[in-house]
Every structure is written in structure tokens, then in C-alpha cells.
Amino acid sequence: MNVKNANNEIKIFDTTLRDGEQSPGASMNLSEKIRIAEVLEDMGVDIIEAGFPIASDGDFEAVNEIAKLVKGSIICGLARSSRGDIDRCAEAVKPAARGRIHTFISTSPLHMKYKLQMQPEDVHKAVIDSVTYARNFTDDVEWSCEDGSRTEHDFMCQTIESAINAGATTINIPDTVGYAMPSEYAALIEMVRNRVPNIDKAVISVHCHNDLGLAVANSLAAVQSGARQVECTINGLGERAGNAAMEEIIMGLLTRPDHLPYNVNVRSELITKASKLVSTVTGFAVQPNKAIVGANAFAHESGIHQDGMLKNSQTYEIMTPESVGLTESKLVMGKHSGRHAFREKLIELGYDLGDNSIQEAFKRFKQLADLKKDVYDEDIIAIVDDTVVRTNDTINLDKLEVLCGTEHKPPKALMTLNVDGEKISTEMSGDGPVDAIFKGIKYLTGFKPHLQLYQVHAVTQGTDAQAEVTVRLEENGKTVNGQGADTDTMVASAKAYINALNKLLIKRGRSAPSALSA
Length: 518
What we know:
This protein has 17 helices and 15 strands. It is of the alpha/beta class. It has 4 domains: about 10-280, TIM Barrel; about 300-325, no CATH class; about 340-390; about 395-515, Double Stranded RNA Binding Domain (2-Layer Sandwich), CATH 3.30.160.270. The strands form 3 sheets. Strands 1-2-3-4-5-6-7-8 form an 8-stranded parallel β-barrel, surrounded by 7 helices. A 3-stranded antiparallel sheet has the order 10-11-12. Strands 13-14-15 form a 3-stranded antiparallel sheet. Mean pLDDT is about 90; it is low at about 1-5, about 300-310 and about 510-518.
């Protein structure tokens, strides 16, 4: 049942950049994290967990830069209970207009015995010490009892009470391994509200994983029992089966106010944009039947369904496509469109680019308009994303010619790369045209990464659609994703592979000439 006489505002805590990035293969570089953080800020997300600063210099830098740039959302960093973690986190979020330290320790018998190898009394002391220390840096401290859904109730209540007494203003009760059932998890939140004497001094937060496919159901059940912060990710990105999907949480709240009479600040019409950006950056494609943001979420093929839709859309749609930012592409751009119209279209699509980026994007738009009969909004979005992805690349594709088919065995790729202004060329054969291209690029650059993923999808319908290609490369334990878009799938493939190599250069921390001569 719904909680009466309670604050009805639900805070959205997005952890795409922290927990989401912990998905194998979902590594993001600094510029990509900043792009996602800016979209989250535009959406009105209340708290952005930007990373785990102690984990790496890259994580620290990302949290620190986002803290400098984002003003509309609270910027949060994660820290274990040690002082070293908290110091690093405090330094990372220091530039934020509003910064939060999120510290945690496991409290379940299983985790305390095998993971921490600590006695409960020592864990309890660590809770008090960590929260007390974090309060030296900020008055916004969140504490989490990791594996909360498998924690003994008496011990949970003791640690929560102590954390609040030590200064925690948000208490997170995670279903870390996605074990709970909705009724069970709702009862857990209600138990905490009834048994912890000072719980009224803190916001109850929930962080649910999706191992049994119940993350969103558990989160919403917890809200009905009094939780007022939900931790989630775009597209449900996260470790193992992922986290509660932000888009599903938001639209659940907005679509069913009769059961969920709560307020949320997020602009739902930016959901589709955020989903596409996270999918592009991580290389994790959204399944077609995914709720809210899947390609089929608002598609109707059944004759019975189509008939109903034609008579009244509410027969089979419980929300409008426009409510999540999905609008029908309109053919308003073509080869005769000018720069001013193109700039206005970018603004309409939610992009704010500098003059140089606009010029490069407009040049590519004109090239596409000459090749493609119909230019859709999705085409322009792909151009812009591809242009931004390629900013400041050290290695660039200059020319590519591919010979393949029944009369060209084996397939052959002839290519020229531009590396810091110097053009280098080769001719390479392979098992297929893509294999020949990738072998040629590896030969010219000296890179020998392992290809973990090669993925192609069409931006729009039709045989003249642009192809968007994602590749995932691994080198010495470092994983990167690269993206490329073009009406020619082979060109898009080369761009994606080269984009990934440029990211590997950054991870190597070396300039291109020295890297390529290695």
C-alpha cells in the first residue's frame, strides 16, 4: 500500500557511469563520460554517481571533471570504508557545486565471513568510523549496507541507526545480488522504517540488481513502502544481469500515478536520446523488445493491434512515443538545405556543438545527402555522434578500396591512413572484406589487439541506410569500444576499428608516433 503523509518526491540516482561501467566491455573514456553526464544533467537527474575515484586515475579524473562541469545535479563518488578511499573520493568531488560521498561496507553474514573476513562488531565500528570521517568533507554522505537483502534484520537496524547518528543523510539498502522478491523487499524497507528510531533523519535509497529480472519491480515496491531515492542506470546497464533501468522506473512512476502517486524531476522526453548515447558509447545494443527504449516498444505488427491503434492509440499504447522522446522522422533536410537550417535541426535534436564540429558535421551531412535519397533525424544523429567520436583522433582513415565477391578471392583491402599528418598505405588480403580491412589497419599501426566484438546495425530502414558499426578491442587487459557510421558498411567498419585504436592510444598514455613505432 502507498505510504501516507510522506514526502512524495522520488530522487533519481543514476549510476550508469559507475555501476554501469563495471559491465564487462562497457569501459568509457573521459569525453564519453562527460557527454553522458551532460545528458543526465539535462534530463534533471538528481544525483549522478560519476565513478569510483580510488579505482584508477581515469576514474578519479572523470569524477573530478564532471564535478567541475555539471552544476544542476549532485555529483557523487563511491568509496569503501577505508580512509584512503574516502580521501580520494572527497578530492574528486571537491569542485562540485553539490558533492556527495557514498561509502559502503558489506553487512550480510556471508559477505562478512568470506569477503571481508571481519566480525560483525568490527564491521559496525567501520560503519561509524567511515561515515564520521566522510562528514569532515561534506554534509551529504550516503551509506550503503552491501548485500542488504541478505543481511540479518537486527544487525541492519543497528548499523543504519549508527550510520545516521554518525552523520549519514541517505541510507541505501541494496539488493546487491538481485535475490529479493518484490513483497519481501517492500517488507524489508517497511521494517527499517518501523524499527530504526532515527530513520526520519535520512532518505531511504534502494539499489536493485536484475539477476532474477526483478530490479524494477523491487525498486517500485520499495518506493511504495517509503524509499525516496532509486538508484538505477540507463538501459539497465550494470554488472551481471544489470541494474534497475532508469527509463522503466521513470515511466512506471509517470504512467501509473494511481498506484505510484509520487513526483519525479526527470524529463522523460530525453530518455530515448540518453538510451541511444549509452548504447553507442558502450557498444551494448538495446534488445528490440526492451521496455520503453527498444526498437519494438512502440511497434505494432499484429493486424488486430493495428486495427485498434488506428481507432484509438490507447488500445495498445499505455504511453505515447513522444513522452520518451521518440518522434517520427520528418523529411525536412536534404541536399539543398543550408548551414543555418542544419544548425537549427541540431538544436531541435538537442545538440549544442562548437563551430568546428558543426562545420565538420555539415560537410558530412552534405556528402550523405548526395548519396541517400531520404535524410532522417536518425541519420543526422549518427553523423553528429560519429563526428564527436572522431574529435582529436590521432589516426584517421584517408582512403579505402575493397575488392570482394565471387570474382575476387581472397578479398582485398587497399587503404591509406593519416597518422598525425603522415599518410601511410598498404594492400592486405583476408578471409573476408572486414578481416582484410582490420588486418591492414593492424599492419600499418603496429597494434595487435584482440577483437572481442564486431556489431553492425542500420540507422534507418532501406537499402541506402547508414550502417553503425561497433567494435570492442582488448589489449593487455584494457578494453575499449569504437564506433563508426557510414552508408558503406566497410568504411563504417574501418572507422570503428580506428576509433577504438585511438582510444587504446589514450589508455597507453603514449603519443601516436612512439606507439606506432613500437
